[in-house]
């Protein structure tokens, strides 16, 4: 990042070495710009208000672009790709957790968030919470994924019953659940892969 900051100041005809040094006094390496507080912002802007204001705007724009691109790196069009992603995200967790993937019309990921955290062996889930989040995000479709800390990748009867309930509710609301994953450290299990499209399973 140091080279980019230096180039920015240099392109504006500033003393690039001096301004870059000032920048890293306020924002050391590894600083999280999401945590930018008013005191740090004001101190930085006071050094060179016009130029530094533009730099902060550019950094924020870069953050938004990166966030947007990351969301579209994962697609649900191929269950194996998504299964490996979910396995990497959840497989090593010590407690059972349920994550919800919300998808756009191209089946690209627009949101990936934990909706429930349980114990070592079980989790209590609510369809109301799941559909509430999906509707708030204006999602086109959903995928549910949860981990089994025991290492057994096969779904339980409770897992199957809950998935069937979500499929039924999703069809009624026009917000389909297109897959349900169980993951462990070493493997993933996809209901759509193993048993066919969920839309046929209500």
What's the β-strand tally?
Answer: 5
CATH superfamily membership of the largest domain, which one? Cytidine Deaminase, domain 2
Distinct helical segment count: 8
Main pleated-sheet profile: 5 strands, mixed
Poorly predicted tracts of residues: none
The CATH topology of the largest domain is Cytidine Deaminase, domain 2
Terminus-to-terminus distance: 51 Å
The domain tally reads 2
The CATH architecture designation of the largest domain is 3-Layer(aba) Sandwich
Can you write the helix and strand succession as a string?
HHHHHEEHEHEEH
What is the percent of helical residues?
Answer: 40-55%
Provide the gyration radius in Å: 22 Å
Binned strand content:
15-25%
Assigned CATH class of the largest domain: Alpha Beta
Mean pLDDT: 82
Q: Describe the strand arrangement of the main beta sheet, using strand numbers.
A: 2-1-3-4-5
**What overall geometry do the principal axes of the alpha carbons give?**
elongated
Task: Name the structural class.
Answer: alpha+beta
Protein name: JAB domain-containing protein
Family: Belongs to the UPF0758 family.
Keywords: Hydrolase, Metal-binding, Metalloprotease, Protease, Zinc
Domain MPN: 75-197
């Amino acid at each position: 990042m140091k080279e980019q900051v230096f180039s920015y100041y240099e392109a504006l005809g500033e003393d690039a070495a001096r301004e870059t040094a000032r920048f890293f006094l306020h924002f050391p390496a590894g600083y999280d710009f999401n945590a930018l507080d008013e005191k740090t912002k004001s101190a930085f802007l006071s050094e060179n208000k016009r130029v530094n204001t533009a730099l902060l705007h550019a950094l924020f724009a870069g953050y938004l672009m990166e966030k947007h691109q990351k969301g579209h790196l994962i697609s649900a069009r191929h269950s194996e790709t998504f299964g490996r992603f979910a396995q990497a995200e959840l497989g090593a967790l010590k407690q059972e957790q349920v994550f919800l993937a919300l998808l756009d019309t191209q089946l690209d990921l627009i949101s990936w968030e934990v909706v429930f955290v349980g114990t070592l062996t079980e989790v209590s889930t609510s369809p109301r919470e799941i559909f509430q989040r999906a509707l708030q995000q204006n999602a086109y479709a959903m995928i549910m994924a949860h981990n089994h800390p025991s290492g057994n990748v096969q779904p339980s009867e409770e897992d199957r019953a809950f998935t069937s309930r979500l499929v039924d509710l999703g069809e009624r609301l026009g917000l389909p659940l297109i897959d349900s994953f169980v993951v462990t450290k070493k493997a993933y299990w996809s209901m759509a892969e193993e048993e066919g499209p969920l839309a046929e399973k209500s």
